[in-house]
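Researcher: Let's do a round of design. I'm pasting the structure tokens now; please hold your answer until I've finished.
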């Protein structure tokens, strides 16, 4: 455990890695939830394996945050402002994956704190980088002194 809440995280913090196997069920359920219909997200096609949609990296972010901050967002609510994901290779069902994360910066402007978190998804067997995900979140306003 790194912090009690996500709002406890500071620049330079490294979240614990999470290793797991990507199952066909998890990918299909995710796709049903976000209305992704491409057939390779639901099953193998010919000799081509079933793959995860690129947006499924959001779940890796949640896995890593849950491992590092088990009580959730915390007393300062978090709102995702923007994200950007770079995908370097398809993420195949049945792969063993390792998700990691770190806090690049924590800044404040106009009484609002901003967290820049970077997550990476690697193949756990050969350490190949599959996806890099940058997440900018805002924390709720801090009460100002004297009012």
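Researcher: That's everything. Go ahead.
Model: Designed sequence:
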């Amino acid at each position: 455990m790194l912090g009690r809440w996500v709002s406890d995280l500071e620049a330079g913090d490294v979240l614990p890695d999470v290793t797991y196997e990507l199952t066909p069920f998890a990918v299909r359920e995710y796709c049903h939830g976000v209305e992704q219909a491409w057939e390779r997200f639901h099953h193998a096609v010919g000799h081509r394996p079933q793959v995860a949609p690129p947006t499924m990296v959001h779940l890796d972010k949640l896995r890593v945050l849950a491992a590092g901050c088990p009580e959730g967002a915390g007393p300062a609510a978090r709102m995702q402002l923007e994200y950007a994901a770079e995908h370097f290779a398809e993420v195949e069902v049945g792969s063993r994956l390792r998700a990691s994360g770190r806090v690049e910066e924590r800044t404040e402007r106009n009484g609002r704190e901003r967290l820049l978190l970077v997550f990476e998804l690697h193949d756990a067997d050969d350490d190949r980088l599959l996806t890099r995900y940058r997440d900018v979140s805002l924390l709720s306003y801090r009460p100002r002194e004297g009012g």
